[in-house]
Sequence to fold (426 residues):
Amino acid sequence: MAGAAEFLMRLGIAVLMIAGPVGALASRRLMVALVPVGAALMIASVLIAPRQGMFRALGQALASPLGIVALALLVWIAASILWTPYPGVAAERFAKMIGTLAVVTLAIAILPTHVRTPNLNLLPIGLGAACIGVLILVPLNLIDTRLVEGPEPGVIERIAIMTAVLLWPALGALAVRERWISAGVLAVVATAAILLVRTPPAFGGLAAGAIVCAFGLAGGRRFAQVLAVLFAILFASAPALALLSERFGPQLGIEALPLVRSFTAWAGMIVDDGVRTLAGYGFHAAVRGLQTGFIPFGAPRGAIFQMWFDLGVFGALLTAFLLARVIVAAGAATPPASGFLLSTAVSIIAIGAFSAVGLQLWWLTIVGLAAIASALLLKGQYRTDRPAAERPAADRPTVARPVSERPVVERPTADFVRETSARPAL
Fold:
């Protein structure tokens, strides 16, 4: 039973870490479909051979401040469906989101306490194969577009965005075992694939992750605390930044910058909406508003705008606190894993917060894969210095102790010797 359970666990991880990235080359929906399959195999492994206290860590995580804030955010999202202009579509999207989050959370909870080295190799293998596929398919696409995408445009762009996120846990899986040459080769191949595709969100995620990795490897905990404060302030004060952009952008001569222009358009919406900005329009209102033209074309497209427009001040503050706690937790890991975990978190925030990618359901699947890969990285670290084995007494070196520490042995007196020698033999 134990062998079968271990095989199913490894097969489930292989489906997630190898078949997921490679399958994205074939279809836009295949990666989304493979995540439940991989999680089902992992669940089957623990059903065959249950482990004692398997869900204790999950209960502790949900009862932690991070878990409580995440649950509160989900409750607020569900409540906002009551006043959203699109309740039917919003409820369907919320159900899909909850399903993906439940599958990812359960997959992380049932991972073994100590992940074996072959399981850590799966993500670098899968991501490397996907990047090599991109390096082969993109030149072929330049020759004839029918050779690659066919009826499904956008496949290569999604793989580039996925690579910008999953690259960091893959590099971390190699770094914790000191395979720096393999990590360097994977980084070069992944960077070449992203540069070849030329997708701006992937560029931004790769650049942000690389900068954070450089600083995070030097001092993860302190650097993570600084990043957490910066991102929390950014999310919490975004409407104020939009109003300041409208007011001072022309005076500073930066009104032509894309970010300033989008924030200026948002500032006009804030003035028109008034108090409605504090409560939000309800879940999924930003996505549908952009599709129907209710939101101006020049408005922001990222998750920052979506959180404020959909969930108002309460949802935005919960999101800011949640992101800050995740960044601090990533920085608290053991080096060198902490630097790569920080890069994973920051690349996700950079891509999702400032681009329309954060509004898509397939993006949530990529974030879920990154979360599972990060959990594998955390549980795959072992002590590099093992305790020395206890040697037999005959092999132990004799260490001379100072005279003051030697035990005092009472010597027999002269009277005791004479009395003992005078006794008759029995």
Notes: The chain is about 70% helix and 0% strand. The radius of gyration is 29 Å.
